[in-house]
Amino acid sequence: MSPISNELILFFLLGLLQGITEPLPISSSGHLMIAQELLGISVGEPHKQLAFATLVNAASLLSVLLIYRSDIFRLAINSTVYLYNKSPDLKSDFDYVKLLLIATIPAGVLGLLLKDILEGHLENIIVVGIALIVTGIFLWLIQNLVGKKKDNQISVIDAIIIGLAQSVALIPGISRSGATVVAAMFKGFTRESALRFSFLLYIPVSIGAVILQIDTLGDILSESSSMLLPYIIAFLSSFIASYLALKWFINVMKKGKLLYFSIYCFVVGPFVILFKYILP
């Protein structure tokens, strides 16, 4: 098989891995590190790895926008109209958008402040293994929770707590969707409302990451036009996998089957640690 074919397969598989794991509460960043560390799979230097992660995250973002398009259109239109006429009927949607923005702040601020620490000390495979176990514990704790709070009952405190949970997911191995869903359900939200807030909250964070990395992506493609096809393949495989995985996850959440993901984390977390540090 030619080197070009191998490269295309590599980018396809990494896009697929990101796409499957991003919506699920099992940490996409952790799985990309596992693939790189244990399987020796890499897309190049650190700046290229970050740009690649941003690219496939953008594909996952597109799938979220597609699945939640009706909620996004409603919130955007009603919030905009509310700014002009202050209609009481539209205030709840305006408040919801405001709370999403508030919940975005902790991860944005901590991400900038702790950037060097996160890159220098936490990008370690043993951290990923431990973090997956922690994720599994919290998913186990909420597996039987059935909240009553709906979208229009979220408070500023709720938004801040969910936002802080999202910032914890800056640690590779801590799932962003898992952390935010866990926080929302601990605060008494229904599974549907917890999931919706979690993935609508993903939108501003992901857009911010894309904006910060767009110059790097442009530089990589300008340096080597041959990277265009692998990047397109990774983007498409990530988008399709994210769309299908999120649709499936929504169905799993409705049935309250988070135990599956908890068990998965309990298996993969210790395996990663054993494989890296104990087994020859």
TrEMBL record:
Specify whether Cytoplasm is a keyword of the entry.
no
The root-end lineage is: Bacteria, Bacillati, Bacillota, Clostridia, Eubacteriales
Q: What Gene Ontology terms for biological process does this UniProt record contain?
A: cell wall organization; peptidoglycan biosynthetic process; regulation of cell shape; response to antibiotic
Identify the gene encoding this protein: bacA
Q: Where are the transmembrane segments?
A: 47-68, 96-113, 125-142, 194-214, 226-246, 258-279
Q: Which residues form the signal peptide?
A: none
Further information in the entry reads: Bacitracin is thought to be involved in the inhibition of peptidoglycan synthesis by sequestering undecaprenyl diphosphate, thereby reducing the pool of lipid carrier available.
Compartments (UniProt record):
Cell membrane
Instruction: Tell me any Pfam family this protein matches.
Output: BacA
What InterPro entries does its record include? Answer: UppP
Q: Please report which protein family the annotation says this sequence is part of.
A: Belongs to the UppP family.
Key words of the record: Antibiotic resistance, Cell membrane, Cell shape, Cell wall biogenesis/degradation, Hydrolase, Membrane, Peptidoglycan synthesis, Transmembrane, Transmembrane helix
| Name the UniProt record assigns to this protein | Undecaprenyl-diphosphatase
Can you tell which superkingdom this protein's organism belongs to? Bacteria
What reaction gets catalysed by this protein? di-trans,octa-cis-undecaprenyl diphosphate + H2O = di-trans,octa-cis-undecaprenyl phosphate + phosphate + H(+)
Q: E.C. number, please?
A: 3.6.1.27
**What organism is the protein native to?**
Heliorestis convoluta
The role this protein plays is: Catalyzes the dephosphorylation of undecaprenyl diphosphate (UPP). Confers resistance to bacitracin.
Membrane topology term reads:
Multi-pass membrane protein
